[in-house]
Amino acid sequence: MAGLTRNLPLPRSALLRSITHPQSKEVLDRGIVLWFPAPHSFTGEDSVEFHIHGGPAVTAAVLQALGSVPGMRPAESGEFTRRAFQAGKLGLTEVEGLGDLIHAETEAQRRQALRQMSGELGHLYQSWSQNMKRCLAHVEAFIDFSEDELIGDGVLTRVDGMVRDLQSEVLRHLRDQRRGERLRSGVQVVIAGATNAGKSSLLNTLCQRPAAIVSPIAGTTRDVVETALDVGGFPLVLSDTAGLRDTRDLVEKEGVRRARERVAQADLTLVVVDSSLLPTDVKQAPDFLQDHLRNVLLDQKQIHADLPSDRFLVVLNKADLLPEQQRQMLKVNFGCISGLPQVCVISCHTNEGLQDFLATLHSRVKTLCGDPLSGAPSLTQARHRAHLQQCVAALDQYQRYRDLDLALAAEGIRLALTSLGRITGKVGPEEILDIIFKDFCIGK
Q1: Do both 79 and 122 map to the same domain?
Q2: Virtual CA dihedral for 388, 389, 394, 399, nearest 10 degrees?
């Protein structure tokens, strides 16, 4: 880098320097230069940072000058992070946390990614890995040396307890209701309901833009209209769907099929109901609403099933069409009915009740995602979940074969360790030997 600037600054010191072309000696810019000698750099290699002005001409000129230096080339996508991983500067979970931090779009996503990047999740998995290595080392030592009376029977009893504890910890970690994965990829929220209930109007109101076509003609929305949304720092993937009704129109029928499919997969469904359809006698409204929800959301095979209230939020739209007294009575009556999903009374036309609805939606989404800064670190990747499930199954193998074939039982621990290794990094056989000789001092 000496060709682009006059003398490198002291390590980790920021100095203002003229940045020149190495051949023509033309000054390209004046910027800050930082020098990070190995191994104290992001990648563990000698590194130089140029903090230049951000105009496209300046950037292009400096990049062209760098490209003219023999042996210099642009880094490939992710190459800096890959080199940091290979140099042991970052673990696999920290690399994934860095990637999530770069792509974070909401405050909660940023917090979760930063926590994972700090190594907290990796440290948890590494602690499990260390305990499994110790278990495997002790079992293998018992297999190899118990006949020489160098290893007592109590070793296996301790291993049994450690394996049970490890399995319980991993299972507890897996029972997180996918909060971390939801936060990373966005909570799947579906807007569903009968035709002309105001589903597209609700989508446009939440997005604050005309994302979907609004028309008084029933069946306007025939496909799924999807958009991303930030609600109080939590990410939502909001889907408007076709009105749920029986139809002979083949295109609309496909839209209805897709709508029901999205509802089945959704983390939360906003069921929009035209409040003008409710009976004028408010006391009859709850029974009417329960029947309406079953008829709209459930097929004939499920018509008498209960709706899981934690997966649905009822939105009584078009409240502006109701008399003031009826609106107020609806809000009071629907606030204390068991067996019915939570109800919000709003008007997309006048925005009445919108703030209360958004507060309720935020509360539901926060419950689905959890607080990324509290408790144990969350699972954020589907691949982590798959490997941890394999880890639990492998520890089961140890318990099944413990009294039948100790070699097969040891293989179960080895498979569990391999599954964890696919998350944190590979485990070499020399590490197992190190523990054997360290813990038992065999052959000293």
Answers
A1: no
A2: 110
